[in-house]
Structure formats: structure tokens, C-alpha cells
Amino acid sequence: MTLENIQLGIRGHDVPLNDPSALAAKIKELGFQCVQLAITKSFPNLVKANGQLDDRLVDQLTQYFGDDHLPLSVLGCYTNIIHPDQQTRNQNITRIKNYLDYAGRFGRAVPVATETGSVIPSGYTTKNFTPEAFKQAVAAISDLCAHAERAGAIFAIEPGRNHPVYSVEKVVELLDEVQSPNLGVVLDLPGLLYQGNVDQQAAILDYALDHFGNRIVAFHLKDLVINGPQITFTRLGKGQLDYRAYLKTVAAFRPGAKVTFEGMPLEDEIASQQILASTEE
Known about the structure:
Distance between the termini: 6 Å
Shape: globular
Protein name: Xylose isomerase-like TIM barrel domain-containing protein
Structural class: alpha/beta
Organism: Limosilactobacillus secaliphilus
Mean pLDDT: 96
Pfam family, one: AP_endonuc_2
């Protein structure tokens, strides 16, 4: 495993700077090669009240972010696309469509990504694991993929344990249901692990790469400590993720893959970057 075979990135909003020029410069100074940019989180002072992008804002941001500057791993528009309130759900979906319309301005095939969200406004519920919840997710994702096709963009879904698309097997089911070439996947292997499957992480990754590897647009990275039902994300080397095997497999499968730290404080992301640099083979 070598860092030369991946593009290591960071979430923009993990760096507490809300000026585009300063943020891009700081991320480069820290040695990261790409960024997962959630514009409403990084630049709440620049975004309109409805959270949508416009030409003025995109022109400003593309001076610093994109293929010609600091490449994007993901254009993040993380929101709840199956919110129980229909008006809120429609607003959330409309905002993602707006991002899809602008994604190409940031570079070639920059994906717009979200998780599915939840059938309740917030928090954990077993209702997310029902056929009805999955059906709602399929309907929303189908709508977004149709828009992505018209816009010439990629819409990517990130599976998560507390959402209707909660496993790699569910991703395969989703891809079977939504027959769109414009549907991608953000794979967060640590975010799919729990006490019942943490010892199967290599098999889970292999399954994902074998069954939908060509759809994966970006990877997430952090370590995790599992204590019964309690899961804590942490810097690399402090938990139960075999991060060396994870990155070695990803780098071999997709040389140049964009791999983004997330789920931990900036100081842990910097420490994790140093750990990777010091353990190169």
C-alpha cells in the first residue's frame, strides 16, 4: 500500500474556514489532494436561504475548487430524501437537482452525493429497515437519477447502517431496482461495520468491489471502536479497521481512487494522514 496510489482527501467543513480561497489554500497546505465539499456547511455565509447554488456562487467557488485547482471527491448535498414531511422532502430533492445541474462546472464527472436519510425527521428507527422505506428510497433515487441523466451528471448514494440502504447487499438491490447508468456509490466501509460483521470487513469490501466496483465514485476512511451497540469513530490505528488492507485493496482495484477522511476531528485526520505516510511499504 502506498499513498501514491490513492488521492487522499478531507471534508471541507472539517477545516474551520468559511472563505473559499483560505479553505482551499489550507487544505493544500495540509497535504490533501482532494476535498469532499459540502457548500452549505463550508460556506453558510455565501449560500442563499434555500441552500441552492447559482451562477455567481459557482463562479466564485470554481476559482479555487475543481479539476483545475483542488479536485472534488464529492460535491456533498447530504440531506433527507425520504423525509416524512412531503414539502420538506420535495425541497431536499429539489436542492440535489440544483447541485446536479452545476456539478459539471467543478470538473469531469464530479458526483453529487447524499445518504438516503430516514423516514423519521431525525434519529434511529427500525422503520428504516422495512420494505416500505426501501421503496420510498428507490422512488426518490429514481427521480434524482432521471434528472442526473438529463444534466449529464452522476448522482451517488452513500449506504449507511441506519438508513434503508444499509448494507452492500442492499446496494446491489438498489442498483437492480434503479436501472440508471448515472447512479454511483460512495463506499464508507467503516460506516457499514458493527459488532456482528467487523470480522468480515475484507469479505464485505470484496463483495462491494465484485458486485458494484465500477459504480463506486469515492471512498470514506476512518477507524472505529465497537463496544457492544456503541460505535465510536477515531483516528487510524486506534480501532478495529484493518485500514492497511482496506487501502491496499482499494488502491489495487482503482489506482488514483479518491479516499476522504471523515467522521473525526481535524487533528485526528491530520494524525491519520501522518500514520499513513509513516507506514508506506
